[in-house]
TrEMBL record:
This is LytTR family two component transcriptional regulator. Transmembrane segments: none annotated. The keyword S-adenosyl-L-methionine does not apply. GO terms for molecular function: DNA binding; phosphorelay response regulator activity. Residues 189-281 form the HTH LytTR-type domain. The lineage of its organism: Bacteria, Pseudomonadati, Pseudomonadota, Betaproteobacteria, Burkholderiales. It comes from Variovorax beijingensis.
Length: 281
């Protein structure tokens, strides 16, 4: 069977150009669908289970990074291997910095045929190796973890090192957070030592302490640069927890991990991308 792909690109002319160049560089590739936003990309990928994903980093609503993170968590690995992932970006210097050391490739806009051919060769080799391996269950688990590690590294590199914008200057770690209360009428100064976890929700981030909930507007990827990574762990694309507040880790019947935090009644979901933090499970 011919290999299959999905393209997610919000500019129709660029999506058409990428599809045409792929047709020339890889005639055997079957592009199953083209979508214009990250949410549709997730839906179509889950429906079609393509072998290769071409995701524009910047898309309306859910961007390419968020779409990839969501798919990493939801992908039905018992039905199909994790797909090969290629990011599409307009930022040459920063894309190279983010991706050049990773196993996941990138394509610059506008698409250059020679560069795309290198990407195609890399994808063909990866798919061929995947097909020939036909691993036993234990080896399949190892292959999945390698793929997840690649996705995790490149998503962190893209979000933190500027695949969509120039890298920010170094930022001092937060000690206090200026956050609104639930009513939005009062700004509270919340010591960072009191925060148990952060959760991205719509245009806000929820800031949860043992007794209160506050709201801030700082994007999660920007907030992460201001937090001590040894103190606060990202466990989901939308959740960062205080590591010392983790009381227990549970695995449900579907195999998904959840955290109990000291001082909070709710269970915190752990994405497949971050399951390696709790390897003993």
């Amino acid at each position: 069977m011919n290999p299959t792909a999905l393209i997610a690109e919000d500019e129709p002319l660029l999506a058409q150009a990428l599809k045409a160049e792929l047709g020339a560089a890889w005639p055997g590739l079957q592009v199953l669908a083209t979508t214009g936003d990250g949410r549709s990309a997730v839906q179509e990928a889950m429906r079609l289970l393509p072998q290769v994903l071409f995701f524009d980093i910047r898309m309306p609503g859910l961007d390419g990074l968020g779409a990839a993170a969501e798919l990493a968590d939801r992908w039905p690995v018992d039905e199909a291997p994790m797909p090969q992932l290629v990011f599409v970006t307009a930022y040459d210097e920063y894309a190279a910095r983010a991706f050049e050391t990773q196993a996941i490739d990138y394509v610059l806009k506008p698409v250059q045929p020679e560069r795309l051919r290198k990407t195609v060769l890399r994808l063909q080799q990866a798919l061929a190796a995947q097909q020939q391996a036909k691993p036993a269950p234990a080896a399949a688990d190892e292959a999945l973890e390698r793929t997840l590690a690649q996705w995790r590294e490149v998503l962190a590199a893209a979000a933190g090192n500027g695949a969509s914008a120039p890298p920010a200057t170094s930022t001092a770690l937060l000690k206090m957070i200026a956050a609104s209360d639930a009513g939005g009428s009062t700004v509270r100064m919340v010591p960072i030592e009191e925060v148990l976890y952060f959760e991205a929700a719509d245009k806000y981030i929820r800031v949860l302490t043992a007794a209160h909930e506050y709201l801030i507007r700082t994007p999660l990827k920007q907030l992460l640069t201001q937090l001590d990574p040894e103190t606060f762990w990202q466990v989901h694309r939308a959740v960062v927890v205080r590591s010392s507040a983790i009381e227990a880790v549970h695995r449900d019947e579907a195999g998904k991990l959840h955290l109990d935090l000291r001082g909070r009644p709710e269970k915190i979901p752990v994405s497949r991308l971050y399951g390696h933090l709790f390897r003993a499970m």
